[in-house]
Design goal:
By secondary structure, the protein is an all-alpha fold. The protein is built from 12 helices and no strands. The chain starts with 12 loop residues before the first helix and ends with a helix.
């Protein structure tokens, strides 16, 4: 990250974080990948698992989840209104209503039955769908990346036996991870979780700001969804967190436009319907991000002057500052506990 984000050394975590945020993994030296659209990934013969996972995602979130909500509003609620009428005009044509007590009971029963459906079906289904979809999104990104790598390997066949042997040795070398690299990887994951957690809280809080809260919420959600989509591929290609954030903040307009359709498609519905719509669209955006060549710009030498037109926007500044503060706090506490143990 840039110099403005550096935090003074408050413990042993600071050198580790600086190593985390500036490291370059061996897998970053891969050759550029060919551009493959998500449709070609889904329907290619070499990605059967990808097609199955994508179909399962559409089946659960589209057919079962959204279908259940559709059945509730088009069939269940009208049936309950017919069986348990809430208006006197549905029972009698008289001006005065002699069934007011019964109608109150009907209204209570109608409300209670609908709420029971939500408690025992829709909310458990929402939790189940959320957990299972999160697993499937990772599988979709993994199989999509594998299919793309397969097409890349087909196009980039070694020209000789010696080159093939050298390529095998290079791959085996990249698989060897020392203890220091493992610790840096764990630290990077912890830092990434903290960063995205604080950013999500920032999105939630800004949504309550009068007048500009909703537009800010849409914009920040667009960035958050876009980051989630590209994070799958960046994890597979070993892009360091520092380079991810630098690339993301330097191309903030692109990522705002990338995540915006997914947000707008679900923003104007009720929470459950909005989730179902987003859960259907999100794997398509993940595949689009996985098949894109946007990450090549991170390593391209010609990108050194990429900010000539649009400047870098510190989107994650607040989340980054809070994450560093938490890491420093835990580091100081661990040092104090270690010092107390030595004294005893």
């Amino acid at each position: 990250m840039d110099g403005g984000r550096d935090v003074e050394d408050g413990g042993s975590v600071a050198p580790l974080v600086r190593r985390i945020r500036g490291r370059v993994l061996p897998s970053q030296s891969r050759l550029p990948l060919p551009q493959v659209t998500f449709l070609s990934l889904v329907f290619s013969s070499s990605s059967k698992k990808l097609s199955i996972r994508t179909g399962q995602c559409f089946l659960l979130n589209g057919f079962i989840f959204l279908g259940s909500i559709l059945v509730l509003h088009l069939l269940v609620i009208p049936t309950l209104q017919w069986i348990l009428p809430e208006n006197c005009c549905q029972i009698t044509s008289q001006d005065s209503c002699p069934f007011s007590g019964v109608l109150k009971l009907y209204s209570f029963l109608h409300f209670g039955l609908v709420q029971l459906l939500y408690v025992f079906w829709f909310y458990p289904l929402y939790i189940f769908s959320f957990i299972l979809s999160a697993i499937w999104y990772s599988d979709i990104a993994k199989h999509g990346f594998a299919a793309m790598e397969g097409s890349h390997s087909t196009l980039e066949q070694p020209s000789s036996k010696n080159e093939a042997v050298a390529l095998e040795r290079k791959i085996e070398t990249e698989k060897l991870v020392d203890l220091g690299g493992l610790m840096i990887g764990i630290g990077e994951q912890v830092y990434s979780i903290l960063l995205l957690t604080f950013f999500f809280l920032e999105v939630y809080v800004l949504g309550f700001v009068p007048y500009i809260g909703k537009p800010l919420n849409i914009l920040l959600l667009s960035w958050m969804y876009a980051y989630y989509c590209f994070e799958y591929k960046w994890n597979f290609t070993g892009v360091s967190l520092d380079k991810r954030l630098d690339f993301f903040e330097s191309n903030w307009a692109f990522f705002a436009g990338f995540g915006n359709p997914c947000v707008l498609a679900s923003f104007f519905f009720s929470p459950l319907v909005g989730y179902g719509v987003m859960a259907i669209l999100f794997p398509l955006f993940v595949l689009t991000a996985t098949s894109s060549r946007a990450e090549q710009a991170i390593f391209s030498e010609g990108r050194k002057k990429r900010d000539a037109g649009i400047g870098r926007l510190p989107i994650f500044y607040a989340a980054d500052t809070l994450s560093m503060w938490v890491l420093r706090l835990f580091s100081l506490e661990s040092r104090e506990q270690l010092r107390e143990k030595k004294m005893h």
